[in-house]
Specification:
By secondary structure, the protein is an alpha/beta fold. It has 16 helices and 26 strands. Strand 23, helix 13 and strand 24 (about 405) form a beta-alpha-beta unit. Helix 3 (about 160-170) packs across helix 5 and helix 7 crosses helix 11 (about 325-335). The chain is globular, with a radius of gyration of 24 Å.
């Protein structure tokens, strides 16, 4: 038996394939929507993927169960409380699938969602009674547990889910043997918890020792601690949680219908009719010159998460990419269910060579230059700027530019009207990725006198410039 982990860093998502050499059978758990790697690795091992498990209806990405069903003929398996629109096999606690030396047994562990399950993995060549591993989905993470407050579970309150989570942790997962390997569905950076570790595998024993949520405590204390200080969930989470329940087109068919080049005139027409222009180049390239009205979300960062946070899944998206970047940009949008791409600009920025009237640039400013401007030592630069910190409230509290305004990036568009008119704006984040998005949003909204702080707050701190903090 072999357990293979696939870690998708841009979504902090872990999926798994369990292969059995004797029966030449494989099962995939919580797959990402682009499934070629599973098919390729199964074929390399001489195995056929016959089962695909979802531990729950994920909110932060679209699962690849439909794709594995259609391309590999795999049977979709879910917990007994799941209510999907597609055909599947529902499995209750204690029910199992066996193939060769592998036994995959369902352990019902609601709490993050009502239908949540964990999967006990037995290597029958070693033991029929002691599991080798448990795939915990979003119930138990390394260093944390799944949050019970997401809107993915419509009709169930956070308090009810926290009750379920307490029981799943204290009466089920914690009772497994200490040596049981723990394989969760997410790692550090996921919005499905607040303190996830960078590690992607642990043991029950280690988690009992080091995970704050697995320490002995009352039910009420547990509910209080796991619901406190959770990060804000992106708006697209509800969209994805609903879409994961539905029968839907596969990623392959969606990409076929969206990957087509558009002449500049068509792109301009679509933008006037409400299409979203998305430039996926690195921020420094975007700010050097871009199509007026475009939003910059670079492929090099948490691209899908930020697309889901600042773009709409209801309006067409037109892509502007570097050479050959169209397919990756579309595929990664498809991972979060944004199948609303209307095409991409033919020739990329080369299409604007003779259209200076459509070209826009974003000024950049260094930390020392901003400090001089704020101190009134740059009379040639005009009025003192408004400094907008687009990090989260928690990041801002830990250290900020004195006098700066904190508007987290997901709320910048709706709160842009709070910024005083007639004054320049300088935006910053921690390192520069989010501020490039922010600057493009403000320019699109008409704040043309917007600058991006090079290197973000890290550069400000590294220059030993004054800062304040509201943390105790």
């Amino acid at each position: 038996m072999k357990i293979q982990q696939y870690y998708l860093a841009c979504l902090s998502h872990a999926s798994y394939m369990i292969l059995d050499e004797r029966s030449k059978t494989a099962a995939v758990v919580d797959p990402q929507r682009d499934i070629d790697q599973y098919l390729r690795d199964a074929q390399a091992g001489g195995c056929t993927i016959k089962h695909v498990f979802l531990t729950h209806f994920h909110a932060d990405f679209i699962s690849g169960h439909i794709e594995l069903r259609d391309r590999a003929g795999a049977t979709i398996r879910l917990g007994a409380r799941a209510e999907p629109e597609f055909a599947c096999v529902k499995m209750g606690g204690g029910e199992a699938v066996e193939f060769g030396d592998v036994r995959l047994e369902v352990l019902e562990t609601p709490g993050h969602t009502p239908e949540g399950i964990s999967i006990l993995v037995y290597d029958l060549a070693q033991s029929r009674t002691t599991p080798q591993a448990v795939l915990t989905g979003d119930t138990l993470f390394i260093g944390d547990v799944g949050r019970p407050d997401l809107l993915a579970s419509i009709g169930v309150t956070a308090d009810e889910l926290a009750d379920m989570l307490y029981d799943s942790i204290t009466h089920k997962l914690v009772t497994l043997p200490d040596a049981t390997l723990v394989y969760p569905a997410h790692g550090a950076g996921s919005m499905c918890g607040k303190a996830l570790s960078k590690e992607t595998v642990s043991t029950i024993g280690e988690q009992k020792q080091f995970n704050y949520a697995l320490q002995p405590m009352s039910r009420e204390a547990f509910k209080s601690i796991v619901t406190a200080d959770q990060p804000e969930a992106p708006e697209y989470f509800v969209h994805d949680a609903i879409l994961n329940r539905k029968e839907r087109p596969s990623l392959e068919s969606s990409m076929r219908s969206t990957l087509h080049a558009l002449p500049l005139e068509e792109v301009i027409r679509m933008e006037k009719e409400g299409a979203q222009l998305l430039d996926v180049r690195d921020g420094i390239d975007f700010e050097g010159g871009h199509l007026r009205g475009a939003v910059n979300i670079g492929l090099a960062g948490k691209y899908a998460t930020w697309c889901g946070s600042v773009l709409s899944h209801d309006q067409p998206i037109v892509l502007i990419t570097g050479a050959g970047g169209e397919e990756e940009a579309v595929m990664r949008l498809g991972r979060i269910g944004f199948d609303n791409v209307g095409g991409y600009l033919a020739g990329g920025m080369g299409a604007l060579v003779h259209r200076e009237d459509l070209l826009e640039r974003t000024e950049r400013i260094t930390a020392p230059a901003l400090a001089e401007w704020l101190a009134g030592r740059r009379a040639d630069a005009g009025p003192v700027p408004v400094v907008v910190d687009v990090r989260s409230a928690a990041e801002h509290a830990g250290g900020f530019v004195p006098g700066s305004v904190n508007i987290p990036l997901p709320h910048l568009e709706e709160r842009a009207g709070e910024l005083p008119p007639g004054r320049p704006v300088v935006v910053h984040c921690e390192g520069g990725y989010r501020s490039a998005i922010a600057a493009s949003l403000l320019q699109k909204l008409g704040r043309k006198d917007t600058r991006d702080l090079v290197g973000g707050f890290k550069a400000w701190a590294a220059a030993k410039l004054p800062s304040e903090s509201t943390k105790a």
